[in-house]
Amino acid sequence: MRAGSTLFVNLLNTNPNVCGYGEAHLSYNNGRDLDRLVYKVKRNLQEKELSEKYVVDKILHNGHSISKELIQNNSLFFIFLLREPHSSLSSMVKLWKHDNEDKKESALQYYTNYYVDRLNALHEYAELISDPDRSIFIRHDQMLENTQSAFYSLQQFLKLDEPFSEEYKTLPTAGIRGIGDPSDVIKQGKIVRDRHSPLLEIKPELLDGALNTFEKCCTKLQSYCTNIN
C-alpha cells in the first residue's frame, strides 16, 4: 500500500498488450480465480472482450493469497513494487487523515506492522517463485527517477514489442477508494515528480524496524528476481 502501485498500473496500461484497473480484491487458489479476474477487469474497464496479452491485478494485502499451485504456473508473471518505509508510512497516514496525535500514533503502529508483515510475505512469495524469468523487482524511486530504464527492463521482461509511456489515459476507476489512489494527482495522466509531501516524525523504534525489513526484503528480491538495469 502507498508504493505508487496505482500510478504503476496506469503506466503498465500504456502498453497495448497490458490491461488492468487496480485492486480486484481476489485470492488466487485455482484457474477459476483467474477467470474471475478477467471478468472483473472487463467490467471495470467497460470492455466486452480483452485482446491484451497480460491482465493485471495489484495485490496489496496478505489477506489476498496466491496458492502454491498458481505460483508455479508458468503463464503467471509477478512484479514486486516496493517503497521505502518513511515515505510509505507517511503516505498511509495522510491518505486516511489521522490528524489527531493519539490516533496518529496508533495508526503508525498499525501501518508499520502491516508494512513489515507485507514485505515478509513478499520475499516468501519471491522465494517460492524463484524464477527471474517470471518475477521482476522494482523500487518506487526507480519508477520515478530511472523511468526509462525501468520501462525498458519491464518491456524486456514481459517480451513486449511496444514500449511503455510516461503519459497515460485515466481509467474509469480513477479516484475510487479501494481500487486505487483516490488523490487528484493520479488524474493528471502523467508521472508527477515534483511532489514534496512532508514526511511524518516516526519513532525510531518503529522506523528502524521497518527500514531493516525493507532492506532485507530488497536483498531477497534482488537475489530471486530480475532487477532493473
What are the main properties of this structure?
8 helices; three-stranded parallel sheet; mainly alpha; 229 residues; two-stranded parallel sheet; Rossmann fold
Please sum up the structure shown:
The chain is mainly alpha-helical and 229 residues long. It contains eight helices and five strands, in the order H-E-H-E-H-E-H-H-E-H-H-H-E. The longest helix is centred in the middle third of the chain and has 29 residues.
How is this structure best described in words?
The chain is mainly α. The chain has one domain: Rossmann fold (3-Layer(aba) Sandwich), CATH 3.40.50. The protein is built from 8 helices and 5 strands; from the N terminus they run αβαβαβααβαααβ. The longest helix is centred in the middle third of the chain and has 29 residues, at 101-129.
